[in-house]
Write a structure and sequence with these properties.
It contains ten helices and 18 strands. The protein is of the alpha/beta class. Strands 1, 2, 4, 5, 6, 7, 9 and 14 form an eight-stranded mixed sheet that branches. The chain has an eight-stranded mixed sheet with strand order 10-17-16-15-11-12-13-18, sandwiched between helices. The chain has a two-stranded parallel sheet with strand order 3-8. Strand 15 and strand 16 form a beta hairpin.
Length: about 325
């Protein structure tokens, strides 16, 4: 077996040992195949899973990150570069005060690093892809200052069509050239189709709708959530900053939704962006990604999420949501 293949197999074994992917998972399998997705919950799990994913790379590591302020992650990227792996990183150019230290360290080590295109208000995407076969799509940044208290999710995706689409967009964004993203089998891109995909998910709910959102201000999505509650869907919302979104929370609560909130002083800090529709039914689906409920996030930023019917991701996100809902302050 060629050395590259051996290295890839070793990386797969490492990720399996870390709980990132099961050994039965096969890159290139259909979207519904067992092992295509694995959910991660932060801060319940620590970021070792991210470092292990980076460390497993035998050929390439491509990272798009809104905020990178984690020296362990930076050191892991540099170590892969020094091991002969091609490492490329896109950091949000509007946040140089946060990203500057990582940018300088990566640049000095010979890593291909660039600030994002001004075509987007923010590059808010949070993705790590290794060897063109495995992508980790996260709701949270690689910023160690937020690790202890932030509720976030990650999904490891080995669907070949998804990863190929992610890599195609990465190449264009890295070169700062225009691209129209494709969704692979499961992806949700901003500014291309995030609003329409999330509206379809919400509007399609028939029995239940659970939402965990840092921001709750996009009128189209808030109207759709209220409409779901009005037509008899059981709607539950876990939100942040009740004074900031009082009008929106009032709207969905008046329609019949149950809302609980957290604040910056009552943990966890709900940084997540997740939706579970019709849990426990044959049509159940879950969204997780970087997209907030805001016009800017959906229509003007570079963002990435995914929608899947994978039972493991559904169960993990739903059970975590249920705990957060139970402990939130009733609105």
């Amino acid at each position: 077996m060629p050395l590259a293949s051996l290295a890839c197999r070793a990386g797969a074994l490492l990720l399996a040992a870390a709980g990132l992917i099961p050994l039965s998972g096969t890159a290139g399998a259909a979207a519904a195949a067992p092992g295509t997705f694995t959910a991660i919950v932060f801060p319940d799990q620590d970021h070792t899973v991210v470092y292990d994913l980076i460390g497993s790379a035998a050929r390439t590591v491509d990272v798009t990150m809104y905020e990178l302020r984690d020296t362990t992650a930076v050191d892991a990227l540099i170590a892969r570069q020094r091991a002969g792996v091609k490492v490329r990183v896109i950091l949000d150019g509007a946040h140089t005060s946060v990203n500057g230290s990582a940018y300088s360290a990566l640049k000095a080590a010979g890593v291909g690093v660039t600030y994002s295109s001004t075509a987007f208000v923010y590059t808010h995407q949070k993705t790590v892809t290794v060897d063109g076969t495995t992508s980790l799509i996260m709701t949270g940044n690689l910023d160690s200052a937020s690790y202890a208290n932030d509720r976030d999710y990650g999904v490891v995706d080995t669907d070949a069509n998804d990863v190929a689409a992610i890599e195609r967009v990465f190449a264009a964004d890295y070169a700062r050239t225009a691209v129209t993203p494709t969704d692979g089998d499961n992806l949700v891109w901003s500014p291309t189709d995030a609003q329409s995909r999330l509206l379809a998910l919400i509007n399609g709910a028939r029995t239940s709708l659970d939402l965990e959102q840092l921001e709750f201000g996009d009128p189209a999505l808030v109207d759709a959530v209220a409409a779901a509650a009005s037509r008899g869907v059981t709607v539950r919302v876990v939100g942040m900053n009740p004074t900031s979104y009082a009008d929106e929370f009032d709207q969905v609560a008046a329609a019949g939704a149950k809302v609980v909130t957290y604040s910056s002083t009552t943990g966890p800090y709900v940084h997540a962006k997740a939706i579970v529709a019709d849990y426990g039914t044959a049509s159940a689906e879950v969204f997780a990604g970087s997209e907030n409920f805001s016009d800017n996030s959906l229509n003007h930023n570079r963002e990435l999420g995914l929608i899947t019917a994978d039972s493991g991701v559904l169960g993990t996100v739903e059970s975590t949501f249920a705990g957060d809902f139970a402990h939130g302050a009733p609105y």
